[in-house]
Amino acid sequence: MQKENLICPYCGEEQYTHEPDSFTAHLCYTQCEHCDKWFLYSVNVTREYEAWQDKEE
Length: 57
Prior knowledge:
Layout: E1 25-31, E2 38-43
Antiparallel strand pairs: 1-2
């Protein structure tokens, strides 16, 4: 199940102080800020770029 926010698999609480990840990682380890249990998570970060020419050259 994919989610936009990091949720602790033990207590189900969102990790509010977790900084958004800047790159994809298959294995991360962090401590829950609510129940203090350590858990693993993975993250998939994607970006989309669109570019166009400036009409005023």
